[in-house]
Amino acid sequence: MLKKYKKKNRVWFAAAWLCILISNLFAVTMQFFKGDVLDYAIQGEGQTTVKYAVLLFAFILGEVSFYFMYNQFSARYIVGCTRCLKHDIFERILRRSYVEFKDKQTGEYIAKYTNEADTIRSLHFSMLPVFWDILIKIVFVSIALLCLDYRIAIITLVLLTTPLYVPKLIEKQLQKTQTEYLQAVERNLAKVNDWLAGFEIIKNFSMERKIMEIFTESSNRAMEKMQKDRQLGAISQLMTTLISYLSYFIVLVYASSN
Question: What is the average pLDDT score of the chain?
Fold first, then answer.
């Protein structure tokens, strides 16, 4: 299902991919020019220093410009995929027969159109450009290090790609908590919708206090699921960050010992 949306917006994704590729090429090359500018400046070679400084500025401008275009194209890709998804969700609802439609409460349909679509956007459509951004950076940095020392390049490649695997280790648990959260939100929204639809009855029979008690219980259940989902996401991010920083120290220790 999701492949259909990605395929329909593949032009924007391809443009974003090309821009981030060029941006990273400028970024990596720029690191070499920074050292050259400093070396020539220390040696007092003014003309050569200016020449390399101009080239450095050109590479900085290239990196920033193409990264800006990457953000623009990736935004178009994400928006395009989300638009198609929401269109299909609403169309599937309209195609239901009246009997099928009544099987679920209106709030559940609203929750599916909003929360479920936004969750898919965050987890799938938004993450794909970011994944390629990280992957291209890793490849380019590894190639640059390979030119300097192949051993450091291999160690760096292994360590820097490790954070990409961390979410996979708890992927099933993440999916479970996200599903539970969405289901809790759907139930809560459905109840709120029914209560608001029966507002006149609630007022006529003075049921405000009773409805608030039920609402509080339903809302707390949904918020507990949200808290669990956020906590698991925070654990995944913490593990990724720690591994990323640990990789720097490992490379530093290895480089200094050789």
Answer: 77
Report how far residue 247's alpha carbon sits from residue 214's, in angstroms, rounded to the nearest whole number: 50
Helix orientation angle between 127-148 and 46-94, rounded to the nearest 10 degrees: 150
| Residue environment code for 61-82, b if the CB has 16+ CB neighbours within 10 A, otherwise e | ebbeebbebbeebbebbbebbb
Residue 100 has pLDDT above 90, yes or no: no
pTM exceeds 0.85 for this model: no
Mean pLDDT for 183-208 is 80
